[in-house]
Design goal:
By secondary structure, the protein is an alpha+beta fold. The chain has helices spanning about 1-15, 15-55, 75-90, 130-135, 160-165, 210-215, 235-250, 260-270, 280-285, 285-325, 325-335, 340-375, 385-390, 400-425, 430-435; strands at about 60-65, 95-105, 110-115, 115-120, 125, 140-145, 155-160, 170-180, 185-195, 205-210, 225-230, 255-260, 275-280.
Length: about 450
C-alpha cells in the first residue's frame, strides 16, 4: 500500500505540475538564495581564518607571560614536545604543521626604505621557512614565493607595501627598527616574494627567525610564539585543551586556555611570580571579525526566513485551491477504499516531491551561481576585499550539514504549508465529494 501510495502521489504530482509551477519557482529561488548566502558566509569566514592563522602563527598559539604584556617561550623544547604529543595521543589530533616564531610589534618603529621612498609596517615576523612552508605556500603571491630553507637574506612583503615603495621581487630593501636594546638597527634584505594583501594582515613583513633576532639584538634562539596549524579547525577547542594538558605533563607552569579577547588581554598583563604558559585560540584573536560575520549572517538569515515564511503561506493557499479543484478526485479515491490517513499522506507526499524538486533545482543553481562568481568575477584589491577573499575571488564553502539544513528548511516549508489542506482533504465526505461541481 505504501509503494502504491508513493506511486500515486508521484503520478499526481507530475500531472498537476502546472498548478505547482509558481510554488516550485518560488522554492527554487529561495533554496538558491539560501545556498548562495550560506556558501558565501562560510567561504568568507574560512578565508579570514586562513589569513589570520598565518598572521597569528597558527590556529592555536602558545604564549609565555610574566605580566609585562610580552610573550617569550623560555622552554621551547618542552613546548615543542607538547605539540608533538597532540598527534601521538590516544585520540590523535591531525596537524598541518607548527610554527616557531620571533615577533616584533611597533607600528612607529618598523620602516622599510627603497629608492627614496619609505613605508611603515605593523609588525615583523621571524619564521622558519622549512617549518612553515606548507602554510606560507598558501599565500596568494603576486610575484615570487617562499624563500629556500635557511635563507636569512630574504623577505616577504605584501602588495600594499610593494605599491608604496614601487619595489619588485629581487630588489633590495632596507629595514630599520628600534632594537630590544633601544638602538636603531638596519639590515638589507632581498625581496623573495610579494603576497596579495591590502587589509589589516597586509602590513606585515616576514623574514627568517634568526635574521629578525639579529636585527632586534635578541639572543639567537629567541622564540616568542609557538603555534599549531590544525588540519580541521573544528578541533580547535579540543586541541587547545589537549595542548594545555600536554604542557602540564612536560612540567611547564600553565595558566590555561584564552578563548576570548578579554581573557587574552587580562592574562597578558596579570602579575605573576614567574613565567607561565597559556594557549590562545584563533577564535579569540578574531572575535571582532567573527562578530561582524555573525551579524551579517543573522541579517541575511532573517531575510531568508521571512521569504521562506511568505513561500509557506503561498504553499498553504495554493494547496487549499488544489484540494478544492480535486474534490471529485478525492471522492473517487475515498469511494474506492482509500482511508482518510491515506488521503492525507497522498497530498503530503506530493508536497514532499514539490519540496525536493525545489531543493534539487535550487541547490544546483545556487552552487552554479557560486562557482560562476568564483570563476568569472575578480574583485579589485582593497582593504575589504583582500581581507575576505582568496586571490581576489570568492572562496565559497558548502559543508554537508549546511546542505542538509537548507533541504530541511525547504522541504519543511512545503510540508507545513500543505498540512492544513491535506487534513481537509482527508476529512472530505466521499458522497458529497462526488457531487461536487467545479
Amino acid at each position: 500500500m505504501n509503494g502504491g501510495l508513493l506511486t500515486a502521489a508521484w503520478r499526481n504530482f507530475v500531472r498537476n505540475l502546472r498548478r505547482y509551477r509558481v510554488l516550485l519557482v518560488a522554492l527554487v529561488l529561495i533554496v538558491m538564495a539560501l545556498t548562495a548566502v550560506l556558501g558565501t558566509m562560510l567561504g568568507l569566514r574560512d578565508a579570514v581564518r586562513a589569513k589570520a592563522s598565518r598572521y597569528f602563527a597558527g590556529d592555536l598559539v602558545v604564549l609565555g607571560y610574566t605580566g609585562n604584556g610580552s610573550s617569550l617561550i623560555q622552554q621551547p623544547e618542552e613546548v615543542a614536545a607538547a605539540v608533538a604529543a597532540l598527534e601521538a595521543g590516544d585520540t590523535p589530533i591531525p596537524l598541518r604543521t607548527w610554527s616557531r616564531r620571533s615577533t616584533y610589534y611597533n607600528l612607529n618603529s618598523i620602516e622599510l626604505f627603497f629608492a627614496g621612498y619609505y613605508t611603515r609596517q605593523r609588525r615583523m615576523v621571524g619564521v622558519e621557512w622549512a617549518l612553515e612552508r606548507p602554510v606560507l605556500n598558501d599565500f596568494d603571491f603576486a610575484a615570487g614565493g617562499v624563500p629556500e630553507d635557511g635563507d636569512e637574506s630574504a623577505i616577504l612583503i605584501s602588495t600594499a607595501t610593494a605599491r608604496d615603495l614601487g619595489i619588485a621581487v629581487g630588489d633590495e630593501v632596507l629595514v630599520s627598527i628600534q632594537s630590544d636594546r633601544g638602538r636603531t638597527n638596519t639590515a638589507r634584505y632581498i625581496v623573495a616574494g610579494i603576497y596579495t594583501e591590502s587589509s589589516f594582515f597586509g602590513y606585515t613583513a616576514y623574514v627568517h627567525r634568526a635574521a629578525l633576532n639579529r636585527l632586534r639584538e635578541a639572543p639567537p634562539e629567541t622564540v616568542n610564539e609557538i603555534g599549531v596549524y590544525l588540519e580541521d579547525s573544528a578541533d580547535e577547542a579540543t586541541a587547545a585543551a589537549s595542548l594545555t594538558a600536554a604542557m602540564r605533563a612536560q612540567g611547564l607552569p600553565v595558566f590555561g586556555v584564552m578563548s576570548d579577547r578579554q581573557a587574552y588581554s587580562q592574562e597578558a598583563s596579570r602579575g605573576r611570580d614567574g613565567r607561565e604558559y597559556g594557549v590562545v585560540t584563533l577564535g579569540a584573536q578574531l572575535s571582532e571579525i567573527n562578530d561582524l560575520l555573525g551579524a551579517i549572517t543573522i541579517i541575511a538569515g532573517a531575510i531568508m526566513v521571512l521569504f521562506l515564511g511568505i513561500v509557506t503561506v503561498g504553499v498553504s493557499n495554493t494547496w487549499t485551491m488544489v484540494v478544492w479543484e480535486r474534490t471529485r478526485e478525492i471522492g473517487t479515491l475515498r469511494a474506492l477504499g482509500m482511508q482518510r490517513t491515506g488521503t492525507v499522506g497522498l497530498f503530503l507526499l506530493e508536497a514532499l516531491f514539490l519540496g525536493l524538486g525545489g531543493v534539487i533545482l535550487g541547490g544546483g543553481l545556487g552552487v552554479a551561481l557560486l562557482a560562476g562568481i568564483q570563476r568569472w568575477i575578480r574583485f579589485e584589491p582593497n582593504a575589504f576585499t583582500t581581507l575576505f577573499l582568496t586571490q581576489g575571488r570568492l572562496a565559497w564553502t558548502l559543508p554537508g550539514w549546511g546542505l542538509l539544513g537548507i533541504a530541511g528548511l525547504a522541504v519543511g516549508a512545503s510540508l507545513f504549508g500543505a498540512l492544513r489542506a491535506a487534513v481537509r482533504a482527508g476529512a472530505v465526505n466521499p458522497v458529497e465529494a462526488l457531487r461536487h461541481e467545479q
